[in-house]
Design goal:
Layout: H1 3-10, H2 14-22, E1 29-30, E2 36-37, H3 41-54, H4 59-65, E3 69-72, E4 75-78, H5 84-114
Antiparallel strand pairs: 1-2, 3-4
Length: 131
């Protein structure tokens, strides 16, 4: 199938499919005319890519782990033991980012809580104005 058909069947734009190819995630064949030729299995491959992206993985990490992923019901499961370490590292980075955001939110909550009662009729929440 051509790229437009793959885009239609996966709900992923042609532009993104080309990006996935540039990142080494998709490997279409080529017709004599130069057009990309995708296989039926590429539909599932694009869905796995989308799932891993939604899990917060970078395309470079996906390129490394994708060959060792299989569908396991509603989830993907690694089939190569050596893929677990990079996945744990990615999760640890996410956890650190979540912790940093929680700290930032708590600091902002403290700033908001320390604000004196302001005229509720003023612009924005609590009558605070920019400027």
């Amino acid at each position: 199938m051509r790229i437009g058909e793959l885009a239609r069947r996966t709900g992923v734009s042609v532009r993104l499919l080309r990006y996935y190819e540039e990142q080494g995630l998709l490997h279409p064949g080529r017709r004599a005319s130069g057009y990309r030729e995708y296989r039926e299995g590429d539909i599932d491959l694009v869905r796995r890519i989308r799932s891993l992206l939604a899990a917060g993985l970078s395309t470079s990490l996906i390129a490394g782990v994708l060959p060792c992923m299989r569908e396991d019901g509603e989830h993907l499961a690694p089939t190569c033991a050596e893929m677990l370490d990079p996945l744990h590292e990615a999760r640890d980075r996410m956890t650190a980012m979540i912790d940093e955001l929680a700290t930032s939110r708590a600091r902002l909550d403290a700033v908001i809580a320390a604000a004196p009662l302001l005229d509720e009729a003023g612009p924005g929440r609590g009558g605070l104005t920019a400027g």
